[in-house]
Structure formats: structure tokens, C-alpha cells
Design a protein that fits this description.
single chain; alpha+beta; Adenine-n6-DNA-methyltransferase TaqI, Chain A, domain 2; Helix Hairpins; four-stranded antiparallel beta sheet
Length: about 400
């Protein structure tokens, strides 16, 4: 053990720190119980789990009550709002420190408020691995809930001086602010891209150097659909990379599985090559479409996709791909959906999708502009993700005292 440190029930911490229960430095409060008939369009706003998003408050899903609310559970600035009961175990313990916007509000029975003079420091400790382990140990077998008694008993490392507590909280809050600013910038860039799509894909705005009329065509007139598929005579030991519907999220390939034909899912049949556009035909409203770019051989995707292979010099794959997220095409897809619990379209429906087509050179230029915007957004997302990982490392070091700032 390093000099100046001691062993406690929550691990090794500096000798001058305490392993202290939350009930010794704060008071957890039980939230408001109300009946459905108490809900109104106005009244006292009741904060719930849905009002917490990445440690900040959001108000796009609100519930108000008309019943009288005890003053004791009207929230205050710097209260810590904590989810203590939820259908998902992972959401138990998610929290936010309240600001001036929450004045005059209360909180629901599935939430708790921790009121403490050390709110900024405790807020970060509530997100630490030390507290997460204690939450997991206290969760019930059948009900995903922690009680206020449990919350009071949770032990955290606690520096002996306000100066050190404040310095740690400030360092972590600065990283939170950077992550928040990156999230806002990413959202702004996405809005700009969406606006550019609306202009460029409809011809309302033309790129410099291009003119001439556009022609509306069906997709099947400019592309082959599902042109290559694995047959029953495929060797049983044929090995390939398999892309399922779950592997694709709005143009991003999140993963894939290595498969042998003998043991692969029955849906693993469609051959895909670089430049193919994968159109999700199962729940296509989720936008699980992909512009496939790998040039390596032996890639197969699910029959839940329709594989669109553009005719050279007739349609640009990138141009077609971006149209799948534009209003004109998504409205056509929505109109063709069949099935309420498992909405789907067919490959024939995909072939009948209509799009406005300029010259092939203009298609490529439009796709290039939108691709550059995507690359900028992806770079910002990588930076945001790296910053988030940095924060996790900082929390592990600073909140346990392994690294001292004062």
C-alpha cells in the first residue's frame, strides 16, 4: 500500500479522507405519490426519470399535478435528483444536479432527492464505480429499486477539506461542460446537414457549375435489386462476414459476425459488394440503411435488407443512400408499410421508390458534399467519445484519491 493511504470497506483511499455514508452528509427525500386523476396539463411539474438526460434536465416529456405538494418535497437548486426505481436496472442511480429551472417543481415516487451541502462533489461520486457496485448489491431480485434507507447507507470516499472536494468537482464539471458543448455542436452540425439534404436532394439549391433538368425515376430503373444470393449449393464450409439488421444504425455499421454457411442464420443470404446500398425492409422507418464501402470479399447481409446495386453512370450509390433519409423517399416508405407490430416493405416496394435524378456528375458532387458533412460529424463524435472515456478515467483516479489535485 502506498504511503499516506489506508484500506477501507470501499477500497484504498488517502489517510486524511473518510469513508462516509451519504446519510451522514445529506438527507434523501421520498418523492410524491399521485393518482392518475391528479394529472393536469398545468400545475406543479413532477420530475421523473425521463427528465434526466446525461446528467442534465430536459422537459420534452412532462407531467403536472393539481394536488397539493408538501413544501418539504418542492425541489431546490443544488438538490440531486436520483432515479431509484425503473424497469431497467441500468437506469437505477442515474442522476442530475438541479439548477434554477427546477424551482417550483417536485419529483415523483420513483425518484429521490438527496439534499446535501456538498452537492457538486457528491453528484460526481454518485456516478462512480464505487457507488454503482453498491447500487447493484442493493437491487431487489424482482423489483428494480433502491430504498431511501439503502441510499443513506451508500459509502463514498470523502476528502477532509472543502478545498479538495471543490477542486475535484470543478475538474470533473469542466469535462462535463466540454462533453455538453460537443453534444450541442454535433446536434447543430446534424441540423445543418439535414437542411443541406433538403436543398441539394430536391434541386432547390444547385452546386456551382451544374444546370439542366432533373428526371424522376424509379429505383429499379437505375439499379439492380438483390442480384446476388447464396444458393442451396453453397459449400457448407464457406466462411463470410455477416451483417444483420441489428448491426446497422442509420448509415453506420456497428459490427458484424464471422459465420460458416453450415451454421449461419437462415437470413444470411444476400451477397454485398463495395458500393451496394442496403435498404432495411423490416421496420424501415428506423432508418437502418447502409452504404457498404468495404472492398474485401465474402460479405453477406440479411434478407431483411434489399441490396441496391446502382447501374454505373445512371445512379450514384451515395446519392441514392442519402435520399433514403430525405423526406421525399421516407414519405413513400411510410405509405407502403404493412403490418402494425412488425412493419415492413418488400424489395418490390424498394424498386418502386421514386427519386429525382440530375446528371451522374451532379449526383456524385451532391453525395460528396453530404459525405464530407458526415465525416465532420463522425470526427466530432469520436472526439466526444474520447472525452467521455477521459472523464471515466479521471473519475476513477480523482474520486478515490489515487491522484490528488491539492
Amino acid at each position: 500500500m502506498r504511503a499516506g493511504y489506508k484500506q477501507t470497506q470501499i477500497g484504498i483511499i488517502p489517510k486524511t479522507w473518510e469513508a462516509i455514508a451519504l446519510g451522514e452528509i445529506g438527507e434523501p427525500l421520498i418523492g410524491l405519490t399521485y393518482d392518475p386523476e391528479d394529472i393536469r396539463t398545468d400545475g406543479t411539474l413532477v420530475l421523473r426519470s425521463s427528465n434526466i438526460d446525461d446528467g442534465t434536465l430536459r422537459f420534452d416529456d412532462i407531467v403536472c399535478v393539481s394536488s397539493a405538494v408538501p413544501e418539504r418535497i418542492m425541489v431546490r437548486k443544488d438538490d440531486i435528483l436520483i432515479c431509484v426505481r425503473n424497469g431497467s436496472r441500468n437506469l437505477i442511480g442515474k442522476c442530475a444536479i438541479l439548477d434554477e429551472r427546477a424551482q417550483g417543481m417536485t419529483f415523483g415516487a420513483f425518484m429521490s432527492v438527496l439534499r446535501t451541502p456538498h452537492a457538486r462533489f457528491v453528484y460526481h461520486q454518485l456516478q462512480s464505480q464505487v457507488v454503482r457496485k453498491q447500487i447493484d448489491n442493493h437491487l431487489g431480485a424482482t423489483i428494480n429499486q433502491i430504498t431511501n434507507s439503502s441510499l443513506k447507507s451508500f459509502v463514498i470516499p470523502f476528502p477532509d477539506t472543502e478545498c479538495e472536494r471543490s477542486t475535484i468537482a470543478t475538474a470533473l464539471s469542466d469535462v462535463d461542460a466540454l462533453i455538453s458543448s460537443l453534444d450541442k455542436l454535433i446536434a447543430k452540425k446534424r441540423d445543418i446537414k439535414q437542411a443541406a439534404m433538403q436543398q441539394l436532394l430536391t434541386g432547390r439549391r444547385r452546386l456551382p457549375g451544374f444546370s439542366g433538368r432533373w428526371e424522376e425515376r424509379r429505383l429499379e430503373d437505375v439499379a439492380a435489386l438483390d442480384s446476388e444470393n447464396l444458393g442451396g449449393d453453397t459449400p457448407r464450409d464457406y466462411e463470410f462476414n455477416y451483417v444483420s439488421l441489428e448491426d446497422v444504425n442509420r448509415g453506420i455499421l456497428r459490427g458484424y459476425a464471422n459465420q460458416l454457411f453450415s451454421s449461419a442464420p437462415s437470413r444470411a443470404r444476400r451477397v454485398i459488394r463495395s458500393g451496394d446500398v442496403l435498404v432495411s425492409t423490416v421496420r424501415p422507418n428506423l432508418g437502418s440503411h447502409l452504404l457498404f464501402k468495404s472492398s474485401s470479399p465474402d460479405w453477406i447481409c440479411s434478407t431483411g435488407f434489399s441490396v441496391v446495386r446502382c447501374v454505373e453512370d445512371a445512379a450514384c450509390p451515395g446519392y441514392v443512400f442519402y435520399h433514403l433519409f430525405g423526406d421525399y423517399v421516407t414519405r413513400q416508405i411510410d405509405a407502403q408499410l404493412t403490418g402494425s407490430s412488425y412493419p415492413a416493405i418488400s424489395s418490390k416496394d424498394v424498386g418502386n421508390l421514386r427519386m429525382p435524378f440530375p446528371s451522374i456528375d451532379e449526383q456524385r458532387a451532391i453525395a460528396s458534399v453530404l459525405s464530407d458533412m458526415d465525416a465532420e460529424i463522425e470526427a466530432l463524435e469520436r472526439r466526444r467519445d474520447k472525452t467521455w472515456l477521459l472523464k471515466q478515467g479521471m473519475m476513477q483516479e480523482l474520486l478515490t484519491g489515487r491522484v490528488r489535485l491539492v
